[in-house]
Design a protein that fits this description.
globular, 9 helices, single chain, mainly alpha, two-stranded antiparallel sheet
Length: about 250
Amino acid sequence: MGQVTHVTLATATGVLRLALLVHISAGMVGLVTGFMALFVAKGGWLHRKSGMLFVYAMITMGAMASGIAAYEGKLGTVMGGPFTIYLVFTGLTAVRPLDYEPRRVAWGLMLLAFALGLFNILVGIEALGRPKMMMDGAPAPMILFLGSVLLMAGIGDWRMLRAGGIRGTKRIARHLWRMCFGIFIASGSFFLGQMRFFPRPLRIPILLAIPALAPLAMLIYWMWRVRVRGRLPATRRYIVDSPSMIQKLASGR
């Protein structure tokens, strides 16, 4: 049997079709809840609930995406799932630290980020020498960009562990940028990656780029507000709902 190049609902059957349906459904839930969490009042009930649903949906979507990409034999996209899972999980634990072995988990996630980042850089370099600079449908610049983001995230993990934890604006900034980038993965995959499925009148790249890139614009805004100006989101419960990560990481519990 020849290599499967692309799995669709029209061609998939059995477990593969179920995995594709779960992937699509989780992606849609992640997109809706992600934008909801992005624009509602930070720290409020709706923000927390939509944010948790977003994390669950993105973990599910990422796991299914990697499985499907592995089945299709797409080296350039198979690591997208672990990247997504890593990003939203560490974004969540920035404000909701784990109760069990947080330091060991943090070390493991840091090593995962470096491994995934290096893998993406190597794949991106290989893609530069291919026709149209593409690897399994993914452009080399995007692969290299995602690899760079992963390496920077790994460096952030290392700095956090070296300091024994984070608190205040650094903790909120960690949460915000990782969640915003996770939403960008969902929005970019949908509005630009699935552009061919939109009605023809809406199939305008510049138009679809607006919602696709909106999370990146919000990421820049929040980093300017929190890291540069030192202004935290208005809702103080955003900070006090969970214990400081610095206490758990420092104790190693």
